[in-house]
Specification:
The protein has about 110 residues and is mainly α. Helices cover about 60% and strands about 10% of the residues. The protein is built from 6 helices and 3 strands. The N and C termini lie far apart (about 50 Å).
């Protein structure tokens, strides 16, 4: 059953640069997602066609997205899940998020120290 899963990240420049581990897990599991986030992760969900993207912190739009996806036929949601799994297998390297986070934290540390 292709039940959509929800992933949320608040609006934050550091978070916008990351690939959320929840989205990675949903894609790897072949589950469609409702993603309320911005940046890299939003781009990947859109590019992979594995769910619905809503900008972070926009509650009314999120409500509409949930209702829309809930009324989407089961086979279409299943197709989103399959698309996410294929994208994950073809383009996402394990450990990618951890490396991205280390890079961002190193930059932040350099600004604080410098």
């Amino acid at each position: 059953m292709a039940v959509p899963l929800l992933a949320t990240l608040k609006e934050d420049p550091a978070l916008n640069a990351l690939m959320a581990s929840s989205i990675q897990a949903y894609m790897q599991a072949g589950k469609p997602s409702i993603a309320t986030l911005n940046g890299t992760c939003a781009h990947i969900v859109s590019e992979a066609a594995c769910g619905v993207v809503v900008a972070a912190n926009v509650g009314r739009v999120l409500t509409r997205a949930i209702l829309t996806l809930a009324s989407t036929p089961e086979h279409k949601r299943a197709e989103m899940g399959v698309a996410g799994r294929r994208y994950f297998e073809a383009r996402i390297e394990p450990g990618q998020t951890a490396r991205q986070l280390v890079t961002i934290l190193t930059r932040v540390e350099a600004r604080v120290d410098g």
